[in-house]
Predict the structure.
Amino acid sequence: MAVVGFVPHPHRRQAMELAEQSAGWLEEAGHRARIMTGPAGEQDGLKDLDLVVSLGGDGTMLRTVDLVARFGVPVLGVNVGHLGYLSGVGPEELRDALARFLAGDYRLQERMTLDVVIAAAGRRQPAVMALNDVVLQRTVSGHTVRIEVVLSGVSFLTYAADSLIVATPTGSTAYNLSARGPIVSPGLRAIVLTPVAPHMLFDRALVLGADEDLDLGVLDGRAAEVVIDGCSFGVLGEGDHVECRAGQHSARLVSFGERDFHQILKQKFGLADR
């Protein structure tokens, strides 16, 4: 008997209907199913799940991974959204995908995450996991943020930019891509540092090793908002820091057969041969 959780997008009716239908089918087959709609802090028994199904777009997928990655629970993404770059199957394929998972006919992709610690007002907050990226961005139009970057304990450079992105390989096709940062194959372990609209001569993105730690310090009294996987974690002032390092836990994404990253890239972004 398997225990399967479903995390539907809270504002998409199709996502909830799919969760209810799939949960009923699983229970009729002798398995257990849970539809998880409450806040993350109210979720119990996550470590007992054999699979979690994310029903929505990439935002729902990021939230689902954040819920269960520390327990090593695999996540299957179902695209009930727009781009759905992280999703493995479409809504019409869900029942077949569940049957294949229960039969052991699937693959797991290990994706690197980031552990992010915010140190503000003299206090270090508990680490937060990021699958895509961490962004320090300006709070006032027409201004920049000034961020000192320290790499593995050694001061590297002070950036003046609209924002600064720290991305995983998975996140390299998110905000990093729109900022003209490099696309990194998701199976690699690397950290990408990309300035957005930098007000300086050095405007290149850096691809760093997964063993390199970053400390981002806010300078010159210019406030910077911290956004982790699309969620705001507050505004930092001068002297506050954000520490980023390779995550202790990897995201485990379910796929079926070979997923050619480059072909998926072409399909999702409508790239055409010339």
